[in-house]
């Protein structure tokens, strides 16, 4: 893989300067401004690779912040979308694919008796809150520190507790039992450091919420259709009352889903919660989702097993390369979504950390990895797709060996 240099990214730098003149913040999502050394501009993606406006090609481990479980421009999704576009791209009315996709989701998601469609993870979470509040007649939402549930401001009455701390949950549930509508959690804290739930923690949340009549919501916008076909709830064997999905469900097209228990979802069916939106159930987006679910389900989820196997081998390769360089690294997370940190560097634990520019050894590593042809997220997170293969693994481990050099005590002779 050819080494990139700052000089070969001149067009991206110029576009970044232009963007800051006309586009507030220079980016369309604040998280993208963290990129090292500056936001890059891309013109095409295919499979596990991206090509920028300067003609540089990278192995992509950002996957559009986790959207592209099937990689870029997957042929099956591309064909389904093209066929639907030829028939029309928005009706503002019903179409048969809505039923097919909804039925498929009910089949795959353990907590799903019914679903509703929206467009972004932020929207889905807000819909889930409205459903929980209408169902329980209560207002408070319990959240956890470091968990990201979209960019909407929390309500003043919401509670924010430390994660993996059952005593804190028990105390809050007991004190505010008649006020708490829902407890929401990422089942794996993907946005705040890729931390796993402590053994028995999710099961205990299920027990506490059931005892107090509180709706348990899993935010599976990231973990859904990534860590297992039925999401983290399937992987960990804990079924929430409601769950939100996004990202991987439509292979990168803007679809989000709220899935839940029938008696809870009845508040939507009855009209107690009004759920509207001109873009909801868009036929092009659902064409992408149907094709994506077909691909992910095929051969008993063989593609997901491949991605998990690739991710495990990559993690082992990263550890081995770091050891050769005398680098103490920590890999937190699961096979298809994990985060690399160095030594004692702590994981991100608050939403502000998600937009802070990377520094220290991580910043140096990310810059060197980009020069070596790897496109990584600025918080050290790696996403794996179903189309990363042997060639990408070999090239990635060679690139990582090179990228560790600027932070290697062995290379410096320490």
Name of the CATH class of the domain at 75-296? Alpha Beta
CATH architecture of the domain at 75-296: 3-Layer(aba) Sandwich
Helix coverage percent: 25-40%
Total number of helices: 13
Account of the 3D structure:
Helices cover 40% and strands 15% of the residues. The protein is built from 13 helices and 14 strands. It has a seven-stranded mixed beta sheet with strand order 4-10-9-8-7-5-6, with helices on both faces. A four-stranded mixed beta sheet has the order 1-2-3-13. It has a three-stranded antiparallel beta sheet with strand order 11-12-14. Among the domains are: 1-60, Alpha-Beta Complex (Aspartate Aminotransferase, domain 1), CATH 3.90.1150.10; 75-296, Type I PLP-dependent aspartate aminotransferase-like (Major domain) (Aspartate Aminotransferase, domain 2). Mean pLDDT is 92; it is low at 348-355. The protein has helices at residues 10-22, 63-66, 75-85, 96-108, 121-136, 166-175, 201-212, 231-236, 262-269, 283-324, 360-371, 390-403, 409-412, and strands at residues 42-46, 49-52, 57-60, 114-118, 140-144, 159-161, 180-185, 215-220, 242-245, 256-260, 329-334, 337-342, 374-375, 381-383. It has 414 residues and is α/β, with parallel strands linked by helices.
Short description:
This protein has 414 residues and is an alpha/beta fold.
SSE layout and pairings?
Layout lengths: L9 H13 L19 E5 L2 E4 L4 E4 L2 H4 L8 H11 L10 H13 L5 E5 L2 H16 L3 E5 L14 E3 L4 H10 L4 E6 L15 H12 L2 E6 L10 H6 L5 E4 L10 E5 L1 H8 L13 H42 L4 E6 L2 E6 L17 H12 L2 E2 L5 E3 L6 H14 L5 H4 L2
Parallel strand pairs: 3-13, 5-6, 5-7, 7-8, 8-9
Antiparallel strand pairs: 1-2, 2-3, 4-10, 9-10, 11-12, 12-14
Helix pairs in contact: 3-10, 4-10, 5-9, 6-7, 10-12, 11-12
């Amino acid at each position: 893989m050819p080494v990139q240099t700052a000089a070969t990214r001149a067009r991206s730098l110029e576009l970044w300067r232009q963007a800051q003149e006309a586009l507030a913040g220079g980016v369309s999502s604040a998280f993208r401004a963290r990129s090292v050394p500056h936001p890059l501009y891309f013109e095409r993606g295919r499979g596990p690779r991206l090509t920028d406006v300067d003609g540089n090609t990278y192995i992509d481990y950002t996957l559009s912040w986790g959207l592209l479980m099937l990689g870029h421009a997957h042929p099956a999704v591309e064909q389904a979308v093209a066929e639907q576009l030829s028939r029309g791209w928005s009706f503002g009315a019903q179409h048969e694919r809505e039923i097919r996709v909804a039925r498929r989701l009910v089949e795959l998601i353990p907590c799903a008796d019914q679903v509703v469609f929206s467009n972004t993870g932020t929207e889905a979470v807000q819909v889930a809150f409205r459903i929980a509040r209408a169902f329980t007649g209560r207002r408070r939402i319990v959240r956890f520190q470091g968990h990201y549930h979209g960019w909407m401001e929390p309500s003043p009455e919401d509670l924010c507790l430390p994660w993996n701390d059952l005593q804190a949950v028990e105390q809050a549930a007991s004190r505010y039992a008649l006020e708490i509508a829902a407890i929401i959690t990422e089942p794996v804290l993907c946005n705040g450091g890729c931390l796993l739930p402590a053994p028995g923690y999710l099961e205990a949340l299920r027990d506490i919420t059931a005892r107090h009549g509180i709706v348990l919501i899993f935010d599976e916008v990231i973990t859904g259709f990534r860590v297992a076909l039925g999401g983290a709830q399937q992987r960990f064997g804990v079924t929430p009352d409601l769950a939100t999905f996004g990202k991987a469900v439509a292979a990168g097209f803007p679809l989000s889903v709220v899935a839940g228990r029938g008696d809870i979802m009845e508040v939507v069916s009855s009209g107690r919660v009004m759920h509207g939106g001109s873009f909801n159930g868009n036929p092009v987006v659902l064409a992408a989702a149907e094709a994506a679910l077909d691909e992910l389900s095929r051969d008993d989820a063989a593609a997901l097993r491949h991605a998990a196997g690739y991710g495990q081998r990559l993690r082992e390769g990263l550890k081995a390369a770091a050891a050769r360089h005398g680098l103490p690294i920590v890999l937190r997370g699961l096979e298809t979504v994990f985060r690399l940190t160095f030594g004692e560097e702590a994981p991100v634990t608050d939403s502000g950390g998600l937009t802070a520019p990377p520094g220290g050894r991580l910043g140096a590593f990310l810059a060197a990895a980009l020069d070596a042809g790897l496109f990584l997220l600025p918080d050290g997170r790696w996403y794996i797709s179903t189309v990363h293969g042997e060639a990408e693994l070999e090239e990635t481990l060679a690139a990582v060996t090179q990228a560790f050099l600027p932070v290697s005590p062995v290379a410096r002779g320490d």
